[in-house]
Write a structure and sequence with these properties.
The chain is an all-alpha fold. It contains four helices and no strands. It has helices at residues 3-6, 14-32, 35-38, 48-130. Helix 2 (14-32) packs antiparallel against helix 4 (48-130). The two termini are 46 Å apart.
Amino acid sequence: MPGKDVMPQLPDIADDLSDIISDLQGIGGGLSDAQIVQQTVPSEVWKGASAHAYTQELDTLKNKVSTFSGKAYACAQDLQPFREKLSEIRHKITTWQNDYDEAENNYVSAVMTDKEQIMLLHIASIISSKSPFLHLL
């Protein structure tokens, strides 16, 4: 039984993770550059209590967008070590599969060699017991 059957490989999702990381970084960057984050209260339009209410709501929205942007970047950063670790583990599994195959082949070769030697000795003993002239050789 080959090593790949004994020790199945993990799915190769490194490219998918790279795409997700890139997308999250794009989302984080897009949000931090969004117009709402850059928005200020136009003093010529808003005055008094309405300016205060608008400012509070704008600040709340800015904080939420900034927080979400930071979370998107944090997710991207957290996925990068996972992607690298997955690649390391996949490499180790491939090495173990190959080592297993080599060990199994060595074992089979050794066993076959021993069996062949035993069989030859057995054949020689049968021949020597059957042939009365073999002892003259």
